[in-house]
Design brief:
heterotrimer; A alpha/beta (371); B alpha/beta (262); C alpha+beta (70); B: alpha/beta; Rossmann fold; five-stranded parallel beta sheet; 10 helices; disordered C terminus; C: 70 residues; alpha+beta; 3 helices; 34% helix; 10% strand; elongated
C-alpha cells in the first residue's frame, strides 16, 4: 500500500545507520539483536536519511523532486518500513497494553521490534505472553530465578507448585528481590514469598499457589487446568521422574513444556523445550540417556548421607534460569527454527568457560509421542 | 602440606566409574563436571578409595604396610585433586549456610586450603561500577560467593524501564540503585560490608580518587554502559592497570546483550 | 615429553587424562562394575528421600529398558 504524502517517516530508535560514501552503501545495525542490513542506494536517497525523523513528511521531502525520484522515494520508504526500520514515532503508546505495562517493558518491546519487524507483530507476540498461563514446578534456586525473569518479560498468569519453605541457606543461591529474615522460627513458604515478589513487579499478576510436592498421585487435570505452558524444575526425588510424568501429560494434552536445567551435576545446563509431536519428549530423552549411559555405572558411594554434599553457585543457577527464560521467550515470539525433530541439551562448563551441546532426536518408537 | 593424620572421606559429589580399559578408573567431579582418569595398578588401592569414609592416610598405611608408599602417594594426590576431603572440613561445610558454595569451591580448592581460601574471600574487596540490568544481578552473585567488601557505583535512580531486567521492583522506582541494593544486602548478607558511590563517572581522576579512599582492591568490574562500555572502560581501566588491579568488562551492554565477560 | 608427576612404576598409579567437562558419559564406554545403571544426576540424587520413593516412581512410570535416566 502506498504511503500517504502526510506520512512522517521515523527511523526507529535502536538502529544505527553507517554510510559508506564511496560505495553508497548504508549499513543499518539493529543494536539489540546485532542484525545488520546493508542497502546500496542512490546518493540523494542516502542524503535524505537524517530527515526521517518523524518531523518531515513525504510531501516536504519530495517537494522539489522530479516524479521519477518521488516514486523511488516511496519505494525506498516502503522497503525500509517492510524491514522494520520505519515506525510511527509514538508506536509504543499505540500498543494495546496499559502505560505502566508498556513503560516497564519498553526495552523488551524494542528488542522484539528488531526481531519481528513491525509494531503489529510485537503487539501480537506480547499479547500472547500476557495471556499465557504458565505452571512452574519447583521454586528452588533456578525455578525462582526463572519465575522472576518471566514476570519481567510480562507474563501475568501463573500456577506455582512447591511445598517447601525458604531456609537460612536460601540466600546462597535463591534470588531474593524482597528483604526477608531467613532466620525466623516460622519460615516463609516459597510460593508465598514469590507471590509477594510478583506483586511488586506487576499488580495485575494472577497466581494460583499449590503448596504441594509433585508425586505419582498428584492429580494433574485439576492442577494444570487452563495451563498453556509448563516448566519443570522439580528435582525431588529426581528430575527424570517428574519430567516423565509431566511430559507424558503435556504430550497428551498438547501443552508445550520445558524441562529446566541447573539440577545436581548439571548446575549450568540449559534446559530442553518439548513441543508435543514436534520435538523429542522426555521419554525420548530417557531412551537416549539409557543408551548412552548404559556403560557408565558409578560405584556405590561410601558416604550414605550426601544431602549437603553437593555444590552450586547463584550465578550458575541464574545462568540456567536465563537460558530457560530465553527459550520461553523465543517460543512465544515464534522466531521459527525451534520446532525441529532435534532436541538436545546445552551445558556451560565452568572450568574452561565454554558451552557444549549435544543433540537428541525423537525416538521413532516412542510410545508416548509417536503415532 | 597434607596432614596424614586427618580423617579423609570421598567427596559426596564425586563419582567413581570403571572404564573399558584395564585398571583405568574415571573420577567425575559433578559440580564442575571435570573428569580425571587414573590408572591404578593394585586393585586394593581402588577398593580403599571407594570405601573411604573417615580413615586417615596414616591409618591406611598402618593397615596395609606392603602398599604403604603407594597409599601415601595416591591419597595425597586425591586430596590435591579434590577427589577426597578432610572429614573435619566437610563437617564445617555441613554446618554452614553457604554449604553449596563451599562444596562448589571444593571442586578446585583442596580440602586443606578451603577454609583459608574462604577467609581470603571474606577479606577481599570488589568494586562494581554499574548496577543496572546486569550489574544488580552481578552484585548479588558476588555477594553470595562471600566476598568481604563490595563497593557499588552507579549515579542512577531506578526507573520504570529498568524493571524488565535486574533485581529491582516497583517499590524501588525513584530510589538510588546502589542504596536499594545496599539495603537489601544488609539483611541477606550480614557479613558483607557495602559502600556506595553515586557520582556520575566522567573523568579518570574520579576512579583513582575513590580507589585511594577504598584502600586495596582485589577486583574491579565494569558493568557501566552509559554512554557506552568503551567510554567507561577507558575511564576505569588505566587506573586498574597502573595499580595492577585485575578487572573485568561485564557483558550485556548495548549491542552485546548476550556476550560473556572479558 | 615431560615426565608425569606420578608414574605407575614408582607410585603404583598415574594420571591418564584430565578433561574440563563431561557430557553425560557419551565419551565413555565401560564394563559393568555394578548392578545399577546410574547416571550422574541419579548418583547425586541418591539420598534417603530418593531411595524411599524410587520404587514407587519406577513402577508408576513403567519405563521400558530399565531405570529412568535423565
Amino acid at each position: 500500500m502506498k504511503l500517504q504524502d502526510d506520512y512522517k517517516p521515523y527511523l526507529r530508535d535502536g538502529v544505527d545507520a553507517y554510510v559508506d560514501d564511496q560505495r553508497l552503501i548504508v549499513t543499518f545495525v539493529f543494536l539489540s539483536t546485532r542484525q545488520r542490513l546493508q542497502v546500496k542506494a542512490e546518493q540523494w536517497l542516502i542524503q535524505l536519511l537524517p530527515f526521517f525523523d518523524g518531523v518531515h513528511s513525504i510531501a516536504e521531502l519530495s517537494h522539489e523532486l522530479p516524479e521519477i525520484k518521488r516514486e523511488k522515494l516511496h519505494l525506498f520508504l516502503g522497503y525500509l518500513q517492510s524491514k522494520g526500520l520505519l515506525v510511527d514515532s509514538e508506536w509504543l503508546r499505540q500498543l494495546v497494553f496499559d502505560d505502566e505495562y508498556t513503560s516497564s517493558l519498553q526495552r523488551q518491546l524494542n528488542f522484539m521490534l528488531d526481531i519481528l519487524g513491525s509494531p503489529k507483530c510485537v503487539s501480537k507476540a506480547q499479547n500472547k505472553i500476557q495471556c499465557a498461563q504458565v505452571a512452574i514446578f519447583g521454586l528452588g534456586a533456578v525455578g525462582s530465578a526463572l519465575f522472576l525473569e518471566l514476570l519481567q518479560m510480562g507474563f501475568q498468569n501463573f500456577v506455582l507448585v512447591d511445598g517447601k519453605n525458604l531456609r537460612p541457606d536460601s540466600s546462597d543461591r535463591h534470588t531474593l528481590p524482597l528483604a526477608i529474615d531467613l532466620s525466623l522460627e516460622t519460615p516463609t513458604s516459597k510460593v508465598d514469598y514469590y507471590e509477594k515478589c510478583a506483586r511488586t513487579l506487576n499488580k495485575n499478576v494472577r497466581i494460583r499457589k499449590e503448596k504441594i510436592k509433585l508425586t505419582t498421585g498428584t492429580e494433574l487435570d485439576t492442577l494444570l487446568n487452563k495451563v498453556t505452558f509448563v516448566i519443570n524444575f522439580a528435582d525431588e526425588p529426581y528430575i527424570g521422574y517428574t519430567s516423565l510424568r509431566l511430559s507424558r501429560y503435556c504430550v497428551e494434552n498438547d501443552i508445550p513444556m520445558i524441562v529446566g536445567g541447573g539440577f545436581d551435576a548439571h548446575l549450568a545446563s540449559m534446559g530442553e523445550l518439548i513441543i508435543p509431536k514436534l520435538t523429542p519428549c522426555s521419554d525420548c530423552y530417557n531412551s537416549y540417556f539409557q543408551e548412552t549411559l548404559k556403560n557408565w555405572k558409578p560405584i556405590k558411594h561410601a558416604v550414605r548421607d550426601r544431602s549437603k554434599g553437593i555444590g552450586g553457585l547463584k550465578s550458575m543457577s541464574q545462568f540456567s534460569a536465563s537460558s530457560v527464560a530465553l527459550k520461553v521467550f523465543r517460543y512465544f515470539v515464534n522466531t521459527g527454527g525451534q520446532a525441529t525433530e532435534n532436541g538436545g541439551r546445552g551445558e556451560f562448563k565452568f572450568r574452561d568457560y565454554s558451552i557444549d551441546h549435544f543433540s537428541v532426536r525423537r525416538n521413532p518408537n516412542c510410545a508416548v509421542c509417536c503415532d | 602440606m597434607i596432614d596424614k593424620t586427618e580423617n579423609l572421606r570421598l567427596r559426596p559429589s564425586v563419582s567413581i566409574v570403571s572404564t573399558a580399559t584395564e585398571n583405568v578408573w574415571e573420577f567425575f567431579l559433578s559440580n564442575t563436571r571435570q573428569v580425571r582418569h587414573l590408572r591404578i595398578r593394585d586393585q586394593r588401592l581402588i577398593h580403599l578409595v571407594t570405601q573411604l569414609n573417615g580413615t586417615s592416610i596414616a591409618d591406611l598405611v598402618k593397615e596395609h604396610p606392603d602398599i604403604g608408599s603407594e597409599i601415601a602417594h595416591l591419597f595425597t594426590a586425591l586430596v590435591e585433586w579434590c577427589i577426597v576431603e578432610y572429614q573435619s572440613v566437610s563437617k564445617t561445610i555441613f554446618d554452614s549456610t553457604h554449604y553449596r558454595t563451599l562444596n562448589f569451591l571444593s571442586d578446585f580448592i583442596p580440602s586443606y586450603a578451603l577454609l583459608s581460601e574462604q577467609r581470603r574471600f571474606r577479606n577481599s574487596k570488589v568494586i562494581l561500577i554499574g548496577c543496572g540490568g546486569v550489574g544488580s544481578l552481578l552484585a548479588d552473585g558476588i555477594a553470595a560467593i562471600g566476598v568481604g567488601e563490595l563497593t557499588l557505583w552507579d549515579p542512577d535512580d531506578v526507573k520504570n524501564n529498568n524493571l524488565n531486567r535486574g533485581l529491582f521492583t516497583r517499590q524501588d522506582v525513584g530510589k538510588s540503585k546502589v542504596r536499594v541494593l545496599a539495603d537489601r544486602f544488609e539483611k541477606l548478607y550480614p557479613d558483607l560490608k557495602v559502600t556506595t558511590v553515586t557520582e556520575l563517572l566522567e573523568q579518570e581522576t574520579q576512579i583513582s580518587r575513590h580507589f585511594g579512599k577504598l584502600g586495596s582492591t582485589d577486583l574491579v568490574i565494569n558493568a557501566a554502559d552509559y554512554p557506552n562500555v568503551d567510554v567507561t572502560s577507558k575511564l576505569i581501566f588505566p587506573t586498574c592497570m597502573n595499580l595492577k588491579i585485575p578487572h573485568i568488562v561485564a557483558g550485556g551492554s548495548w549491542f552485546h546483550r548476550i556476550n560473556a565477560a572479558l | 615429553m615431560a615426565k608425569p608427576k606420578y608414574d605407575l612404576q614408582t607410585h603404583g598409579f598415574e594420571e591418564v587424562s584430565f578433561e574440563a567437562g563431561m557430557m553425560n558419559g557419551q565419551e565413555y564406554t565401560g564394563g559393568c562394575s555394578g548392578g545399577r545403571s546410574d547416571c550422574c544426576t541419579r548418583t547425586c540424587s541418591l539420598d534417603e528421600n530418593f531411595a524411599e520413593s524410587e520404587k514407587g516412581w519406577e513402577d508408576f512410570l513403567k519405563v521400558e529398558g530399565g531405570q529412568v535416566q535423565y
